[in-house]
Amino acid sequence: MRLVNVLVVSKLDAGQRSAMSALLARAEEADGHPALAEPQQAAAARLDLGAHQAKLVLAYEGQTLVGAAFITPAIDGAMALHTVVEPDHRRADQPETVRTTLIREALLHSHGRLRLWFMQADDADDAEAARLGFRPERDLLQMRAPLPLAPEKLAGARPVHTRPFRPGLDDEAWLSINNLAFAGHPEQGGWTHEDLKARLEADWFDPEGFLVAENEDGDGLIGSCWTKVHRDHEPVLGEIYVISVNPSRHGEGWGRALTVAGLQWMAGQGVHVGMLYTTSSNTAAVALYASLGFTIDHVDRSYLADMGSAGSTSGSTSSTSSIS
Q1: Of 69, 90, 122, 232, which is the most buried if we count CB atoms within 10 A?
Q2: CATH of 148-271, one of 3.40.630.30, 1.10.287.90, 3.40.980.20, 3.40.190.290
Q3: Is the pLDDT of residue 316 over 60?
Q4: What's the pTM value of the predicted model, to 2 decimals?
């Protein structure tokens, strides 16, 4: 048996920041994908919890950080919970793992609805979530397709004229369309100027790959296709990061047209694999992407639990757990 000490914080000191950065890098190298979902990854990149109203559960073996759980608010009122564990501390055959310990501690510091995310979820993850009182909520599919698209895949797309996004000039129009298109969506809906600004200032942002289509009269936007190239991934992935169409223009073929425009732009940058995320329940989107040659690479799954009244939520607290 080994002891794991658990500490809950809302602010990281210099040593914790360094240890967290190293943990996230090791986990990403081992898994071949980011350790956290995009909003939590953005917070972790700056390790600025206060700006995101986040709490962090830290798990230590001795003085070594071996895991962490991010607890952050979501747009729909639920709190989101993501975990990251040191690769050599992932023992699925044990009844109490580092991840389980992190989740149990997070439950004590959560209230209302709590949304737990498991990246690349499998049957063992489903079983663990059920043991902890969570029920399956939503499957987020990561789909991939070879680029450039074959000519027959392009044939059904209507022509669309796009131009690059203009930071500072298109912000208001884009936010309006995005929030209409994703009304009620727990991650993508309800973006603020601050949310957009954080992405526009990210080191991966390229305005040339943020394609917008204007209404025929030049007044407002039909929609947009925002791309994101993951050049540190092997193979390099070209992501359809956000695609949104004004709901008043639904049914006119703009979703397909903008998707194709984004994929063609990325192919022109030398990217050979396109990637996107979509919810499995969005059957129309899944069918559209499948018709363009996308197949499912893996599934990220969310689970919900109703926590009732708040637990201990202020300051820093610590506890100790035995891990086999």
Answers
A1: 69
A2: 3.40.630.30
A3: no
A4: 0.84
